[in-house]
């Protein structure tokens, strides 16, 4: 596997450990990181030695604290739509539709694009200190990497409305209760537990695993929901409140919405 700037990769016993490596920015997903994840996923699909992927974040504080807000702060509607569309196609859908199993090992904050990354994975295990949420409305945005669809699928409409509209984070314990994550563990057990689960999966028939992934993904899948999200996400970029939301974040103050 080649060397990346924003990712660490380590292959052990047919498992690729993929670590998002921008600890000083809480592993926020900038353009370069997303491009590297895409490149890495394509390499995984063509590498028979890799049979499963475990995705985690560098450090103890964050899995991924979202898309890189600074990078899209001056985007217009068209650029906003492209950001969501390209991200969904090249990274998030690629993970969700991957024929090899992908587990998210959530080691801290999983916010916005970070939670969307975790939700694109097939299984989620989180350490007890993890906090999860889709806080985009506090920036004048909505989730754009499939979050409105995948959260609703996992926790149902009622809880999805609550989480997305309030922008509140939930604890790992609460996330397990509502079905957003599969298990919560003490932080030192996170990678061992994710590894144990992956090893169990990899002990089964690879063809059957690939077939099960495909069939489960076909459950109630509606592309129109994802397309509606891309449109609505893009539209937010023309609002005055989007400018206020991202400016407030960058200036480290609370936004004043009109
Ligand atoms: N995009 C860009 N930079 C981010 C980021 C993001 N999504 N999340 C965190 N960072 C950066 C901060 O700007 C800061 O950089 P600086 O040291 O150059 O100022 C650094 O990461 C550390 O974050 P900071 O906010 O100082 O840590 P904190 O402990 O005070 O707060 C969070 C942690 C997760 C609550 C806070 O970083 C946060 O709210 N992040 C944004 C979450 C979000 O809205 N995500 C959705 C994006 S669509």
Please provide a written account of the structure.
The protein has 258 residues and is an alpha/beta fold. The protein has a single domain, classed as 2-enoyl-CoA Hydratase, Chain A, domain 1. It has 11 helices and 10 strands. The chain has helices at 31-45, 69-72, 77-96, 113-120, 147-155, 157-166, 172-177, 190-202, 206-217, 223-236, 240-250, and strands at residues 7-12, 15-20, 52-57, 62-64, 102-106, 109-111, 123-127, 131-133, 170-171, 183-185. The protein has a 6-stranded mixed beta sheet with strand order 1-2-3-5-7-10, with helices on both faces. A 4-stranded mixed beta sheet has the order 4-6-8-9. Helix 4 (113-120) crosses helix 5 (147-155). The termini are far apart. Residues 25-26, 28, 65-70, 109, 111-113, 135-136, 139 line the site of coenzyme A.
SSE pattern: EEHEEHHEEHEEHHEHEHHHH
Shape: globular
In helices, the fraction of residues equals 40-55%
Assigned CATH superfamily: 2-enoyl-CoA Hydratase, Chain A, domain 1
CATH topology description = 2-enoyl-CoA Hydratase, Chain A, domain 1
Could you tell me how far the N terminus lies from the C terminus, measured between alpha carbons in angstroms? 49 Å
Q: Can you name the CATH architecture? A: Alpha-Beta Complex
CATH class: Alpha Beta
- Work out the count of structural domains: 1
Number of helices: 11
Which cofactor or ligand species appear?
Answer: coenzyme A
Count all strands and give the number.
Answer: 10
Structural class: alpha/beta
Task: Give me the secondary-structure topology.
Layout: E1 7-12, E2 15-20, H1 31-45, E3 52-57, E4 62-64, H2 69-72, H3 77-96, E5 102-106, E6 109-111, H4 113-120, E7 123-127, E8 131-133, H5 147-155, H6 157-166, E9 170-171, H7 172-177, E10 183-185, H8 190-202, H9 206-217, H10 223-236, H11 240-250
Helix pairs in contact: 1-3, 3-4, 3-10, 4-5, 5-6
Bound molecules: coenzyme A.
The site of coenzyme A (COA) has 16 residues, from helix 2 and strand 6.
């Amino acid at each position: 596997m080649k060397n990346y700037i924003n990712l660490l990769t380590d292959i052990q016993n047919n498992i690729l450990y993929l670590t998002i490596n921008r600890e000083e920015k809480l592993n926020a997903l900038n353009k370069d990181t997303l491009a590297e994840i895409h490149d890495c996923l394509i390499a995984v699909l063509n590498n028979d030695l890799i049979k499963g992927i475990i995705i985690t974040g560098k450090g103890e504080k964050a899995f991924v604290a979202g898309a890189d807000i600074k990078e899209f702060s001056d985007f217009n509607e068209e650029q906003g739509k492209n950001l969501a569309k390209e991200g969904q196609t090249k990274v998030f859908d690629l993970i969700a539709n991957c024929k090899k199993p992908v587990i998210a090992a959530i080691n801290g904050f999983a916010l916005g694009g970070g939670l969307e990354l975790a939700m694109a994975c097939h299984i989620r295990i989180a350490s007890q200190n993890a906090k999860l949420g889709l806080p985009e409305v506090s920036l004048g945005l909505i989730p754009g990497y499939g979050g409105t669809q995948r959260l609703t699928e996992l926790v149902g409409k009622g809880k999805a409305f609550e989480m997305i509209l309030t922008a509140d984070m939930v604890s790992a314990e609460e996330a397990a209760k509502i079905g957003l994550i599969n298990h919560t563990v003490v932080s030192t057990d996170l990678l061992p537990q994710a590894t144990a689960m992956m090893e169990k999966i990899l002990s089964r028939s690879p063809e059957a695993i690939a077939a099960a992934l495909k069939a489960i993904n076909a459950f109630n899948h509606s592309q129109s929901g994802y397309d509606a999200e891309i449109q609505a996400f893009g539209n937010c970029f023309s609002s005055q409140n989007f400018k206020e939301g991202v400016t407030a974040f960058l200036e480290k103050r609370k936004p004043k919405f009109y």
